[in-house]
Structures are given as C-alpha cells and as structure tokens.
C-alpha cells in the first residue's frame, strides 16, 4: 500500500489519504475533540492532553489520515484511523484499529474507504486478523459498516460503556481474518 494516494468520495469531492505524523497532531486533536464531545464511540470522557493523544493515536501505531485534496498545511482533517498490534509478542499479529470521520463528511463513503484501506494496510504489514474490542452497541452506523467490511460480532461486554445519562450500554468485540484479503 502506497501513501499518499487520492480518492473520490460519493459526493465527488477529492481527498488525499496520507500517513499521519506528529505534525498532524493539532488537526487530529481538533477532530478527536468533536468525537469525544459526541460521547458515542470512543471511551474518553474528556479531550486527552497532547501527550495522552500522542500515546493513543501515534506511539507504536501506524496512523492514516484523510484531508481534502490540494489543501494547505493545517487544513481540517476529514478522518483518520490508527492501526496497532492488539497484544504483544505471540499475539501481535492480531491488529486493533480505531476510526474517526468528521461529522460534516459522514455518509459519503469515507468510513468505508478508510476501513478498506486499513484492511489492505494491515495485511501488507503482516497482520493476520483485526479485532475491534469496544464497539459501542448503540453505534449502529459503525456496527453496520464493520459488518459490511467482513467483521463479525464475537461477544458483548455487558455494561462496558457509561453514557451521559448515567446508564450503561454494552460493547461488542468484532473480528475479521485477513487471510483472504
Ligand atoms: C462510523 C463512522 C466511521 C462511519 O463513517 P462514514 O464516513 O459515515 O461511513 P460511510 O459513509 O462509509 O457509511 C457507512 C454506512 O453507514 C451508513 N450511514 C452513515 N451514516 C449514517 C447515518 N447517520 N444514519 C444512517 N446510516 C448511516 C451509510 O449509508 C453506509 O452504508 P451504505 O454504504 O450501505 O449506504 C463515522 O460515523 C464516525 O466517525 N463515527 C464516530 C466515530 C466512530 O463511531 N468510530 C467507530 C468506532 S467503532
């Protein structure tokens, strides 16, 4: 898989998919702030500090980001994913990934494109399968997208996620093999 590359979304807009580096941190953090405030997909309940964000999004990870094509430095990030081993050593061939798409860019195929890119990139990096270990059960868009990309739901972790109203929702563990990618 070669980065950067260009692609088109369903609405015709051109985007560039790049390997993200620490210089992408401000744009990523601005987007992640929106996701954290939504509170419906990732476990953070406040925006992580720059150092925490660095650990969560960059340290030991392969991170990929989408920007509008032909934009200047410091453009708004449209979406991103990180890819990392879910465990070390004997189980490091099982990858884990996390995805975010900016609200204004959703439902235009970017989530699918980033997901498909992740599968090929993970395969190229030598991973044998991918696990998502905290898919919020009420995140129906994500569950549907991952199912469309070949993931299956292995189990539910009861009450894993605290919601804003103080109640709890389950989290799903989803997995797919990379053997046939
Ligand atoms: C989940 C997420 C990455 C999907 O990104 P996206 O760019 O909207 O995905 P796509 O446009 O490729 O759409 C995926 C599918 O969901 C559907 N969909 C997207 N948004 C939808 C919405 N608001 N309501 C109903 N369906 C929706 C699309 O129609 C598409 O299905 P289709 O191709 O059969 O029509 C994005 O919603 C997001 O960033 N959410 C917050 C973070 C998150 O949930 N991350 C994943 C954690 S497991």
Strand order, sheet with most strands: 1-2-3-4-5-6-8-7
**CATH topology title:** Aminopeptidase
Strand % is 25-35%
CATH class reads Alpha Beta
* Alpha carbon gyration radius: 16 Å
- The CATH superfamily label reads Gcn5-related N-acetyltransferase (GNAT)
Q: Could you describe the largest sheet, including whether it forms a barrel?
A: 8 strands, mixed
Helix content: 25-40%
Provide the succession of SSEs. Answer: EEHHEEEHEHEE
Instruction: Tell me the overall shape.
Output: globular
Task: Give a topology summary.
Layout: E1 5-8, E2 14-19, H1 25-38, H2 50-57, E3 62-68, E4 79-85, E5 94-101, H3 110-124, E6 129-136, H4 140-148, E7 152-162, E8 168-177
Parallel strand pairs: 5-6
Antiparallel strand pairs: 1-2, 2-3, 3-4, 4-5, 6-8, 7-8
Bound molecules: coenzyme A.
The site of coenzyme A has 19 residues, from strand 5, helix 3, strand 6 and helix 4.
Give a short synopsis of this structure.
With 181 residues, the chain is of the alpha+beta class. It has 4 helices and 8 strands, in the order ββααβββαβαββ. Coenzyme A (COA) is lined by residues 35, 41, 99-101, 106-112, 132, 135, 139, 141-142, 144-145.
Write structural notes for this entry.
The chain is α+β, with helices and mostly antiparallel strands and 181 residues long. The chain has one domain: Gcn5-related N-acetyltransferase (GNAT) (Aminopeptidase), CATH 3.40.630. It is built from 4 helices and 8 strands. Strands 1-2-3-4-5-6-8-7 form an 8-stranded mixed beta sheet, sandwiched between helices. It starts with a strand and ends with a strand.
């Amino acid at each position: 898989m070669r980065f950067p590359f260009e692609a088109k979304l369903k609405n015709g807009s051109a985007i560039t998919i790049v390997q993200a580096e620490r210089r992408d941190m401000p744009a990523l953090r601005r987007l992640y702030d929106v996701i954290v405030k939504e509170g419906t997909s990732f476990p953070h309940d406040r925006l992580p500090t720059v150092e925490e964000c660095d650990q969560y999004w960059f340290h030991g990870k392969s991170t990929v980001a989408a920007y509008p094509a032909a934009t200047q430095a410091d453009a708004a990030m449209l979406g991103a994913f990180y890819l990392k081993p879910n465990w070390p050593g004997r189980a490091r061939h099982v990858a884990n990934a996390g995805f975010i798409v900016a609200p204004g860019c959703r439902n235009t195929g970017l989530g699918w494109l980033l997901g498909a890119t992740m599968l090929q990139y993970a395969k190229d990096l030598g991973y044998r399968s991918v696990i998502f270990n905290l898919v919020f059960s009420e995140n129906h868009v994500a569950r549907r997208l991952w199912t469309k990309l070949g993931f299956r739901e292995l189990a539910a972790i009861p009450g894993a996620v605290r919601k804003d109203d103080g109640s709890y929702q389950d989290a799903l563990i989803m997995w797919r093999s990379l053997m046939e990618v």
